[in-house]
Design a protein that fits this description.
By secondary structure, this protein is mostly helical. It has a domain at 40-241. Helix content is 40%, strand content 4%. The protein has a two-stranded antiparallel sheet with strand order 1-2. Strands 3-4 form a two-stranded antiparallel sheet. Helix 9 (219-229) packs across helix 10 (233-286). The two termini are 39 Å apart. It binds a DNA duplex through residues 19-20, 23, 26-27, 47-48, 51-52, 55, 58-62, 64-65, 68, 126, 128-130, 178, 180, 182-183, 193-199, 216, 219, 234-235, 237-239, 241-242, 244-246, 248.
Length: 362
Amino acid sequence: MELGLSLGDASKPVGFLTKNGASEQHKKNGLGFCMELGLNTNGGNQELAEKSHENDGDDDDDDDQTSEDTRASMENTPIQLDLLPRAPVPRQTPSHLQPLPWSSDNGSSENGSISGNVGLRAAARGLEMNRLPPPPPAAAEEVSSANSVGSPFQMDFGIYINTGNENPGGNDVIETERVSSRASDDDENGLNTRKKLRLSKEQSAFLEESFKEHSTLNPKQKLALAKQLNLRPRQVEVWFQNRRARTKLKQTEVDCEYLKRCCETLTEENRRLHKELQELRTLKTSNPFYTQLPATTLTMCPSCERVATTSAAAPTITTANAKTSTIDSSTPKPINPFPLSRPRFYPFSQTPPPHHHQSATS
DNA sequence: TATGTGGCTCGGGTTACATCA
DNA sequence: AATGATGTAACCCGAGCCACA
């Protein structure tokens, strides 16, 4: 059974109930869950059109990823593999330095030459991104503190290596990491450990803003974001993936709470109706002429064998298609488990139930 | 036209690390 | 200082889609 959960704009139809529909909806509108997610109007075709032209290293697979990133980097700039142990170099302005080609660190499989630092890491499975040799503590300090420099969204905290060459077309981004001593040790030992980067507040804020605009990225957007934030495209991609997952998780929690309240409401309504039914039965038993007086009859639904109270003056409503019914305004209205203020959600599909009982008493 | 293949992206799940109480 | 909880960056895997041969 597929349960469609959706909160948000109630005026928008739920479009993810079918598998293909889910995919389409996702591509066109971002997430199926529509809460606070804007439309991704430029995602679909443009993305497809760009797919074949851009190689930005989006693959989740590490090996592929590194290859892709390497390729992307190599297309932009010739890469000279650094075969010597990297000497820590104080960070300088990018205009004078060639950014350390992170792709050369792990993407050497592209041209088949693996050596030095590259070889050590490339040999290890995973080829994770934050595995460059860490800068010395002083450099690390600079890396961290550089986040707050300049324009709030033009952060520059990459680690650069002075090659003496200008790199006009090269990637600006290369290494963005805050180093931990533990990871440093592991790296020095050539161990395969994952170093974890914490994005700065500015980076996170900017990514959040972007996410509000579109929860998915096309390659161009990804590259632009990466360049703007001095992150690798892969990092931007991962951030968006994780962000979507977090959104969905939160949405699921909200939906669960909502369903719980709905269940409680329905339970209460059920209890009330049972009580009411009991009273009507009692009344009917004690007073044989009762049925003629309030013009109320009890009818049994043939399909679900439930008792429904219907007004005798009005046609008995037994099918979902019967939309004309007269309900006494004095009748206590049934509890609506899904009031309008609730997030958009129709738990039992958009089609009306096969039959429903009009609880109308007089 | 149908089919196989490779590339790409995604969601779901997991792991590993950083941070905090 | 040690430790458990929590958040999250990064990873792995399978599925779906598309382009191309």
